[in-house]
């Protein structure tokens, strides 16, 4: 049950308490080991990928710069969410300060939106590579990547900024226990004594306009890509073209599948345990981050060779 605040603290909350899996406490025991392993895998794989791209001159190309940006986003998301969850699991360190909670909320919303936008730019890169191969070097340049990175950061920093601001301005007068492992916007704002309709509405609009538009544009780009691939007549050209898009498409599936399941569980929340969306929300911050660099490392020969050389140097 949420903890009732005293009258002295009713006007200002200094900290919240994160209650993970209150209906399924045994989950914390069996989930802590795989979650910690996934976290170590995500951090190790992404750092290795970043170092490989940095050291291997042949990987200093726009597509790999975008992949580096994706790895940086994954690292920040993991560090923002998973260590705190593990501290709760292992040491029952549930308190989180007012400032830290809303900072975590902002980073989660902002960086997930940045990832979505990065996938969109990567889809455009693949579209130009397949549909306009002769123009690719003149369109997808280092300058293009720099402008794309600025757009990714600026757009998502601005549109997600009001989410924690709106929540932080609410009056928290009765409860300070968040029934979640993380400071999700709605999990926090529903503790307020104020009307949170604006919070819900803004998150709904941003979610569907930002993430929704990204998904639609990615889908459209792949329609053009598939149409171009089907028109290729040279022997083996279609297979090669599909191979260049395969890794990116798999990454999008990792990102979108868990997100889709998370949305569906909220739609049918009366039929599933309330802890299931919480679990999916936590896993969405670590599973794609762990698998993204592995997929590119396995499917991209130059990255694979670079990682092998890096390991041999270390040995």
From TrEMBL:
It is found in: Membrane. Its main location: membrane. Residues 45-296 form the G-protein coupled receptors family 1 profile domain. GO terms for biological process: cellular response to lipid. Pfam families: 7tm_4 (PF13853). The keyword RNA-binding does not apply. PROSITE patterns: G_PROTEIN_RECEP_F1_2. Keywords: G-protein coupled receptor, Membrane, Olfaction, Receptor, Sensory transduction, Transducer, Transmembrane, Transmembrane helix. One of its GO terms (cellular component) is plasma membrane. The keyword Transmembrane helix applies. The chain crosses the membrane at residues 33-53, 65-90, 96-114, 205-229, 249-268. This is G-protein coupled receptors family 1 profile domain-containing protein. It comes from Sarcophilus harrisii (Tasmanian devil).
């Amino acid at each position: 049950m949420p903890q009732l605040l005293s009258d002295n603290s009713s006007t200002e909350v200094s900290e919240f308490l994160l209650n993970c899996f209150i209906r399924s406490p045994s989950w914390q025991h069996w989930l802590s080991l795989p979650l910690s392993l996934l976290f170590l895998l995500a951090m190790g794989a992404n750092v290795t990928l970043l170092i490989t791209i940095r050291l291997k001159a042949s990987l200093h190309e726009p597509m790999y710069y975008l992949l580096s940006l994706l790895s940086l986003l994954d690292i920040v998301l993991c560090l923002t969410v998973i260590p705190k969850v593990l501290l709760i699991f292992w040491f029952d360190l549930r308190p989180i300060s007012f400032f830290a909670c809303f900072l975590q909320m902002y980073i989660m919303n902002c960086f997930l939106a940045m990832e979505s936008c990065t996938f969109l730019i990567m889809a455009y890169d693949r579209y130009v590579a397949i549909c306009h191969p002769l123009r690719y070097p003149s369109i997808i340049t280092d300058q293009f990547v720099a402008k794309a990175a600025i757009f990714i950061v600026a757009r998502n920093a601005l549109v997600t900024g009001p989410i924690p601001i709106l929540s932080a301005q609410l009056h928290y007068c009765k409860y300070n226990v968040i029934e979640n492992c993380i400071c999700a916007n709605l999990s926090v704002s529903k503790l307020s004594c104020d009307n949170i309709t604006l919070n819900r509405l803004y998150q709904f609009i941003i979610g569907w306009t930002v993430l929704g538009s990204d998904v639609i544009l990615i889908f459209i780009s792949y329609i053009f890509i598939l149409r171009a691939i089907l028109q290729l007549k040279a022997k083996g050209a279609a297979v090669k073209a599909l191979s260049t898009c395969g890794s990116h498409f798999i990454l999008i599936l990792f990102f979108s599948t868990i997100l889709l399941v998370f949305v569906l569980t909220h739609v049918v929340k009366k039929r599933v345990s309330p802890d299931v969306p919480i679990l999916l929300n936590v896993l969405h911050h670590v599973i794609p981050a762990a698998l993204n660099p592995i997929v590119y490392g396995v499917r991209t020969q130059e990255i694979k060779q670079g990682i092998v050389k890096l390991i041999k140097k270390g040995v």
